[in-house]
Amino acid sequence: MNDIKKSREEIVDEFKPTIEFLAKYIPWLEKQTGKTVTGSYRGDGQNRQNFSIPVYDSILLAFINDVSKTNYIDNNYQYVYSRNRIKTYEDEWEAIEKTDIMNMGILCGIMSRYVMGGMTKSVLWKNGVEYEIFLRVLKKTKEIIEFWDKPLPSEDETGILF
What we know:
Elements: H1 8-22, H2 26-31, E1 38-41, E2 53-56, H3 58-67, H4 77-83, H5 89-98, H6 105-117, H7 123-130, H8 133-148
Antiparallel strand pairs: 1-2
């Protein structure tokens, strides 16, 4: 998200389709809180010296793929972290909670760190689920959009079954 000042209506118009598209993942992310979404494949046991390969939940991979196609992705997410002095996941939680419609770039930066950073350091995807980062960003976005626009359909009405 760029630094050009936009009206509230423009921001709602920009993020409403995104959150409607990604809201189907909210129930799954809520269920995954405290659970592991990764495994490890070590081969068929023939050669014990093989290295292990991380295996990810298919819904997590679908979520990452879908988010990477949205306006949440900001290549300059590092600046969001330095500008807002975000260092730990507690700082991320606090920044997410304080976000309002005029600084949605914070949510984009946090989501981008976990999605884009996970492309090279995949533990970030796991942490995004375990530390509830993905869930909190989606819920905060939904809360903001519903406040400034009409309520969105509930997750149960999206028709997606996981």
